[in-house]
Amino acid sequence: MKTINSTSNSVVKEVKKLQQKKYRQETGLFVVENFKIISDAFNSGYIPVKIFVTSDFIKKNPEIDSIIGKVGEGYEIDDKVNKSISNLDSPAGILAVYSQIPEKFDSAVNSLYLNAISDPGNLGTLLRSAVAFDFHNVILDSGCVDLYNPKVIHAAKDAVFKLNFSFSKQLSDLKDDYVIVSTPVHDGGRFVAATKPVCLVLGSESHGVDSELELLADQKVTIKTSGQIESLNVAMAGAIIMEKIFNFK
């Protein structure tokens, strides 16, 4: 491993830029600052392009050596550099840079279509639920927050490495192969048996699913509540409906 002790180092400057969406898009890279995520991704075959670790982190986590040995570029950094490249209030002492995941779509499995989900925490939580309930494809439309936003990655944990993602699929493309299920706040019913894979459409809590997308729905599902609140958080609502579909009998 090489040693970096200066925040003005060109490698440090480059990795700091990855906090910006524009630079992530230009380079096709993103950052993970969580050893558990990095370790789980490694066990699934995802090797970082670069990795930055402090000497204290190495001492406390000697198992990191097995990952460092596979990475093309490894850097030991001091606390000052660690703080400068981190997006966290309390830097973890480890930061890995990954290539963004190529688009992939499997038409034989359940899918999640996300319409204008702008909150990073909500998106990350929905991705974890998608893994939990076997919604293996996730389609993000142009109104969604960047998948590789550090806050999304933090909330999603290792889910980003376990799903197929598409940014180009249109909901209309799925009409022949899927039962499309939308989620209006009111006027929907219960999920009924589907003879094809399901594509669940979720919209933002403030605006719901776009009306043009609603028109493509084969089923409209609404969560029955006590009525004492106006609506559920989209991440919570999405998890409830995914669980209902996953366990439907």
Give a written overview of the molecule:
Residues 9-96 form the MRM3-like substrate binding domain. One of its GO terms (molecular function) is RNA methyltransferase activity. Belongs to the class IV-like SAM-binding methyltransferase superfamily. RNA methyltransferase TrmH family. Keywords: Methyltransferase, Transferase. The protein is α/β, with parallel strands linked by helices and 249 residues long. Helices cover 31% and strands 19% of the residues. It has two domains: 2-99, Ribosomal protein L30/S12 (60s Ribosomal Protein L30, Chain: A, 2-Layer Sandwich), CATH 3.30.1330; 111-246, Alpha/beta knot. Helix 8 (150-156) links the parallel strand 7 (137-140) and strand 8. The longest helix has 13 residues, at 120-132.
Outline the secondary-structure elements.
Blueprint: E1 2-4, H1 10-17, H2 21-27, E2 29-32, H3 35-43, E3 50-54, H4 55-60, H5 65-68, E4 73-77, H6 79-85, E5 94-99, E6 111-115, H7 120-132, E7 137-140, H8 150-156, E8 164-166, E9 179-182, E10 198-203, H9 211-214, E11 219-220, H10 234-246
Parallel strand pairs: 1-4, 3-4, 6-7, 6-10, 7-8, 9-10, 9-11
Antiparallel strand pairs: 2-5, 3-5
Helix pairs in contact: 7-8, 7-10
